Amino acid sequence: MTTAGTTEQIRDELARRTLELCAMPSETCSEEKIADHVEALCRTLAGAASTVRIGNSIVCTPEYSHAEQKPVIALVGHLDTVKCAEEQPTEIRDGRVYGCGSSDMKAGVGVMLALLARWQTIAPLYRPIWIFYDKEEGPHEENGLEPVLRSNILPKIDLALVLEPTDKSLQMGCMGTIHATLTVAGKRAHSARPWQGENALYKAAALLEKFSGLTRREVCFGDLTFYEVMVVTRAWTSNSANVVPDSAMLNVNVRFAPGRSPQEAADELRAFVGDAAEVEIRDAAPSGAVYLDHPLLDPWRVRQKLTIAPKQAWTDVARFTDRGIPAVNFGPGETAQAHQAGEWCSIDSLEFAYTHLLDFFGASASAS
Length: 368
Known about the structure:
Layout: H1 7-22, H2 32-46, E1 51-54, E2 57-60, E3 72-78, E4 91-93, E5 96-98, H3 102-116, E6 127-133, H4 145-150, E7 159-162, E8 170-172, E9 176-185, E10 189-190, H5 200-212, E11 217-221, E12 224-236, E13 243-244, E14 247-256, H6 262-273, E15 278-285, H7 298-304, E16 308-310, H8 317-321, E17 327-329, E18 344-346, H9 347-360
Parallel strand pairs: 3-6, 3-7, 7-17, 8-16
Antiparallel strand pairs: 1-2, 2-6, 4-5, 5-18, 9-14, 9-15, 10-13, 11-12, 12-14
Helix pairs in contact: 1-3, 1-9, 3-9
């Protein structure tokens, strides 16, 4: 629907778009079908010449008249989801869209597509471009946004809006993240004669106790408070059941606030562990910078009385700000629903994100 519509028509369209996307399984590394769907929509709505595909990522840059005189705003959303829960419903019910990835972040992609359907009328103030990408939920180095940003197909971006779920707020920055394997050494022995060995699990218990005593650490940016944590998320051995383990492994996830680098966070982890275990950093992603008073955001934020909050998680805001491109999180969906069994997104949040983004771009009500 590209002509004016009632609020109920808009809500219905947004819900149907989101449900359609949720009905397409797209776990990380299995995004081809949904990428085909989004690419076809981009070509239909904005033209083949405006649509470029890189792997299972799609960039859509409609040609606006006098576009070179307007700041470029990137609307950004990932197509993949985590592994879906077995009992996940996929339906519209009680003012919600249920489906795997509904909040994180097929609702955001649905809003992006609804805005793209109106690209000729929504942008009197800025020039929007659309970036849909794959593998956000996988390892940092495999993220599909990276090849897009490294390509030469993008114009210079003045601001990126990442449509992750934000609970109807404007969420600044993001936490950096590290996954590390800690290996505690022991001595192998037969489990019938454990006194001949040194049980690595028992040695790991002391290190686990040390981690369990940690509390969150506050880092403030103005009125925003981020919480840094180091938490053990997995523990395992690789020995047979009748063997005293000669090594025990722990997965530790470190979340560090804007202003700190992955190297600084890794150094702190190693200092904390000391000689109790060998530390191997397996995956690391930078934190996202905070833009509290950006001139492209402030008038809109004040006009719409948007709440500002910190992003207490990692998002691809960091991938933009690491390149010096200002970026913030603003999208439909409920953060507490991300990765949940029975995941849902409220239709109210879909409408909220859509109408506020229309206002950001300077569109009149008739654009809806």
